[in-house]
Amino acid sequence: MIAKPPAETPIDVAMGGRALLTPLTGIGQYAAHLARELIARGHGVRFFYGTHWSSTLSGHDALRADGMPARQSPRTAAAAAAKRFARKYLPGAYRFMPYVEQHRFSAGLRGRAAPQVYHEPNFIPFRFRGPTVITVHDVSWVHHPEYHPAARLALLRANFPDAVRRADRIVVVSDFVRSELEACMPDAAPKIRVVHNGVSPVFAPRLPADTNRVLARYDLTHGNYFAAIGTLEPRKNLLTALAAHALLPKPMRMRVPLVLVGVEGWLTDALHAALEPSLRDGTVRKLGYVPDRDMPLVTAGALAIVYPSIYEGFGLPLIEGMAAGVPVLCSSAAALREVAGDAALVRDPADVDGFADAMRALIDDDALRARLIAAGTARARRFGWSRTADETLAVYREILT
Q1: How many CA atoms lie within 13 A of 198 on its CB side?
Q2: What is the pLDDT at residue 44?
Q3: What is d(CA 216, CA 400) in angstroms, rounded to the nearest whole number?
Q4: Which residue, 109, 265, 355, 388, could crosslink 231 as a Cys pair with Cβ 3.0–4.6 Å?
Q5: Nearest-CA neighbor of 127 among 16, 44, 51, 38?
Q6: CA-to-CA distance for 400 and 294, rounded, in angstroms?
Q7: Nearest 10 degrees: CA dihedral of 359, 361, 367, 373?
Q8: What is the mean pLDDT of the chain?
Q9: Are β-strands 53-54 and 117-120 bridged in parallel, bridged antiparallel, or unpaired?
Q10: CA dihedral 326, 329, 333, 335 (to 10 degrees)
């Protein structure tokens, strides 16, 4: 039996890296920030990218396991390209890829010292003969299956119960997700640990002089747009944001457009149909994927963050907006209320008129904006990736006995 390591002892961690392949969505951001924090503390981290293992953290600011800068390997770049291709052209890949990847996962561990812990940040772990931690970001497919592609639903329904049974610990990103998961799978309750997401210090208030060069590339002006940040998919409820923004007078909409920031997701036909008139007249902009280096500036330059999501496990753009000194308007989804506290304007996700009135108030009411900025800045200080890493390491140490 391995003795439980003291807090300062480095831990060898195997981490699922598929979510780290660009473009990064919310889960990828979570995995990347957690991995950086672990590496900075001197822990050994190896990543499985679906096709191969690597000691380099993927991304434009790639790091080796020793914390030094590194170039992304050709194999990792190829894996990222394959992910993008499959996402766009082969949605059915969900069905067969786990079998191929499991073989590669196991083969890459043969003949090497076994990691002390395997952490899968993206719900479903590979089979591993050792302590296993998974992160569950939400259970949206249980309550809103209509918002997910059929292939993903089939994958989760077939594999998630077994993943929960096999995991030694289950990290969830909010108390809301804990309650949801316990309701779905009561036997999992003793293994669940709440570890909130964090916010990077690069999300900070910026002056126009700081943002103008980047914003000019996107044809944006500091303080003159609403930013709706997240993957374009039905659960984000962007139709409510569009409808609410359309209720504003057109001169106001031209002066303060609604800007959609995020990669193309799934089931978006209705969204694109609704977008067409506003894209044509310029009252709505669609930026697509914005690189990590630009996101803090695009966030800080917004008049407000608009986040009308129907269901979330945490809501990372919300707390990033607060850290950047930007007012937040969000839905009353339970996890968003947990994260935002009293530091955001909150409306029912179906209340189009309420969102429109709130948008108008954010444009016209300087005192309201100042109050929200102060409250949001204070709220954001409660969240940090360093804390996320500390609490995750405590979870690892629980099972290293």
Answers
A1: 20
A2: 95
A3: 51
A4: 265
A5: 16
A6: 39
A7: -10
A8: 91
A9: unpaired
A10: 10
